Structures are given as C-alpha cells and as structure tokens.
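Technical note accompanying the year-one report. For the benefit of new consortium partners, we illustrate the data format agreed upon in the data management plan: each record pairs a sequence with a structure-token string. No post-processing was applied to the example shown here.
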Amino acid sequence: EDELKDFFGDSGKVTDIKWLEDRNTGTFKGTAFVQFTTTAEGKKAIKHHGGMLKGRRISVEYSRPLKDSAEASKKPERVRTRVFISNLDYEIDDQKVREFFSDCGEIRDIRWSERNGEFQCKGVIEFMSVDGAQKAVQKSGQMLMSKPIQAAISTPPKRQSSEQHTMFVGNLDFETTEGEIRDFFGEGVKEIRMVKDRVTNRFKGYAFVECVDQEACTRLVKEKSEARFRGRPIRVRATFENGGKKYKR
C-alpha cells in the first residue's frame, strides 16, 4: 500500500486503496482501485499510465462502476470488516470495547446482540478496514474485563438460528448458578445465558439454554418439563414453540 501511495505521490493525496482479491482464495488479482481527494488529483494520476512499478509496466485508467455489480462488490468487503465477539462480561460497554481494540484500527460501529430486550453477551464490531478486523481476530482468547473474549470474522447469519434448538427455563431460584443448570440438564447443552438485571447484576430467575442441536433440545424439554429444581417446579419450553413471544418468568 505504501509503495502505491509513493508511486502516486506527485498526483495528490490517496484517501483509500481497495485491493481486488479472488473471492474464494483471497489471492490478490494484481488490480486495485485508488481513491484521491479531488477529481483534479485523479486526472493527474492518469498520467502515470504505462509507468514502471516494481519492474512492471502498469495500466492506470478511470474506474467505471458496473451497473449491477457496483453495490454487490462492496458487500464482501464490508462483511470482511465485521468481527463477531462473544463470551463478553455482562457490564461491557462501547468505550471498553474501543479501548481494548484501539491498537487494531478505527472502529466504524458496534452492535450488541439482544433477545427480548436482554443482552446476550455478544455482538459485532465493524472496522473501517479489513486489516483492522484481521488484527482484532488475533486478540481472541485475551482477557477483556473478567472473561477471555472470543473474536472471529463475522459470517452472514443463516436463516435457521440457535432459537431452533434453545430452551427457555423459568421459575428458577435466584441463587441458581450456571454450573447447577448445566449439571441438571447434562449432556446436550452447548451454552447457557443467565438473564440478569443490567443495573444490579442480580439473576432474574430465568435462563436460555442452547443445545447442541434440535434433537437434544426436544429430548431435554420432554425429560425436564415436569421436573423440580432446587425444590421448586420449573418451566422448560423450546423457544421456537413460542413464536417469538415473551415467556412468563
């Protein structure tokens, strides 16, 4: 990138460079789009057509967006700048995330994942560049507040969400721990989200238990729907059976 900026140094200020890569392999195709501050600077850059760069004669032309693919070409780039983060401390906020990833690059946006108004301890960070996102992924496993953060390039969501194999568990004792819930349901549990008050951090008496698949979810709902836990009857329902409506806690 620096070599390309130096090459066009006498034309004006380069504000952005987009490298054209193979969508499957990520291999550079030998083509780039260089954006300048003004049209006049772009005209100056055209004069470098046929110039030598790293021992090769290069072609410099005006970029003409294709009618149907201009917008589509931006989407893969935007997707690769988004990082999915999970296993977050319940008290996390935008400022703490920006401080943690400050050495990766500029952040465009932060979106938190919520369900029925409850924070799910995960979210998506969008960086201004692909390089920033790649640096952020390297911080996966590092401690952010009280937990080791998990970070990965975000992939477009599939239509079948985790709700297809998640259970709502209600009427729990307020002193219940995540370990007790995991032991109670046993094999087949993937993740447990204890719903807490964001101000007091006190457990609200209900949780969402994500199973490894829908088969495990169906089995556990059948086994535990009439069970007692910590001396009280609990409510166990598959979330997809409720049509997205709120549960009685």
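Partners are asked to follow this layout when depositing records. Confidence is low (pLDDT under 50) at residues 66-75, 242-249.
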